[in-house]
Amino acid sequence: MSTRTVLHSADIARALTRISHEILESNKGPEDLVLLGIPTRGVTLAERIGALVSEFSGTAVPVGALDVTMYRDDLHRNPTRTPRPTQIPPGGIDGRTVVLVDDVLFSGRSIRAALDALGDIGRPGAVRLAILVDRGHRELPIRPDFVGKNLPSARDERVNVRLADVDGVEEVTIES
Amino acid sequence: MRHLLDTKTLSREEALRILDVAEDMRDTQSREVRKLPTLRGKTVVNLFFEDSTRTRISFEAAAKRLSADVINFSAKGSSVSKGESLQDTAQTLQAMGADAVVIRHGASGAPHTLATSGWISAGVVNAGDGTHEHPTQALLDAFTIRKRTFGDDSRGRDLDGLHVTIVGDVLHSRVARSNVWLLTALGAHVTLVAPPTLVPQDVSAWPVRIEYDLDAALGARPDAVMMLRIQLERMSAAYFPTEREYSRRWGLDAERLASLPAGSIVMHPGPMNRGLEISADAADSPRSTVLEQVANGVSVRMAALYLLLAGERTDTTAEEDAR
Question: Is the Cβ pair A80, B36 closer than 8 Å?
Fold first, then answer.
């Protein structure tokens, strides 16, 4: 088994900076933006992107967390998952542009679950998807709008995103 | 989690897991759409051999909010009144494809028998058995105490150092037993207050303090006072001279309510005998958590059903099905 580091700390910082600019560009400013991270690392990434977007635009952009555990379609195939808190910013999501943030995009099933969860919370004007690493192998017709890095991988390889605030180290590795 | 039968064998970590998941369930209940798709296609059977309003409705609401199908079974008007045994009833439910059975039974240990007999492969939740245990009630009580004490910071916290006083008919109370085990496992100090005739014999082995005088117990400034219902239906003998005397010595009246320290709460598992163990002043005061307990009960039962049913079933079902 070999482990290769594909993104270092500086690469992650550059990717998040670029994503933040792209979000502002495509939304034509910070109006009505809401960033929702998918636990665990998606929340950390959403907070970082939120800070950057707020800094670049001069407007505080609300950031929250959206847990998708109870909407997954693979619950009965895995040991019981413990749900994580969902935090929707006080302004809600109705009519706003929600940017979902996650660390790795793989099958697309978590994002499908996230879309279902959003539907139970409100009706966003638009939903976008920001991803740090897109490793391919989609099982559903889901496509990210903002990508940190496209990482072609084999299905049986493992892609690990580690972030300083959660894991103590900051890197993206691929294990094969 | 395979079954939820009691709180005596529930570890602090397992209990905290249920309480923390209940926090998440509670959050989902303030959403525009309160129904979660989590347990779609699962069947929960409410098997009630004893009368119950709030526990059965609470389990039914919990299961429905998680999109499970609910079948209600009450012994009255069923084949049980024709003499069907628990085994035959259970096997019938198994054949109908129940994934979880919520059972209330007058005999202590009936849920345990159901879970270990091999009659069914479904997860078993004890919703009250005789004078043994009522684990989801204790969990919702602990949840309520935690929520009132720590508010939004409740996740991951136990009840370390809190003083809880449980007053009334401890002898017949499965709620008291479940609470004693759970609250002490979570680090709370529990004091039981009861007339000597309503204190169980084996109580010296419990991790609690016993007090016979309610005013002395309230003088110790408890953080929560839990009034138990006087269960006239379980009383086969005279345990106290008159209801009036009981009410005067062990009832929570307006005067005793006023003597409680600021911030302490008054709990009751319901249904209340107003004027007997709890006065209307106490039941309707801002300190009373009676209705919060009911609301939290749904969240806690959603958590229990989720932890029981959502994951992979590590049991013999697949083998049995293959046979």
Answer: no
Cβ pair B20:A120 closer than 8 A: no
Rounded (5°) CA angle A34-A38-A43: 70
Query: Judging by DSSP bridges, how do beta strands B265-267 and B69-74 pair with one another?
Result: unpaired
Residue A75 lies in a domain: no
For B134, the token pair is 């009522």
Going B123 to B127 to B128 to B129, the CA torsion angle's sign is negative
Write down the pTM of the prediction. 0.89
Q: How far apart are CA B293 and CA B288, in angstroms?
A: 10
Q: Domain spans of chain B?
A: 12-133+296-314, 135-293
Contact residues, chain A, for B313 at CB < 8 Å: 76
Q: Which CATH class is domain B135-293?
A: alpha beta
Query: Which class for B80: exposed (0-12), middle (13-18), buried (19 or more C-beta within 10 A)?
Result: middle
| Amino acid (1-letter code) at residue A118 | L
Radius of gyration, CA atoms only, chain A:
16
CATH number at residue A157: 3.40.50.2020
What is the interface pTM, i.e. ipTM, of the complex?
Answer: 0.81
Residue A145 near residue A123, CB atoms below 8 Å:
no
Average pLDDT, chain A: 94
Q: Which of B227, B197, B224 is nearest to B212 (CA)?
A: B197
Chain A: residue whose CA lies nearest to B2: A80
What pLDDT, in 10s, does the model give residues B190-229? 999 999 999 999 899 999 999 999 999 999 999 999 999 9
pLDDT 10s digits, B266-320: 999 989 999 999 999 999 999 999 999 999 999 999 999 999 998 776 543 433 3
Q: What's the distance, CA B252 to chain centroid?
A: 21
| Residue pairs between chains A and B whose CB atoms are closer than 8 Å | 59
Residues 6+ apart with CB under 8 A from B260: B218, B221, B222, B225, B266, B287
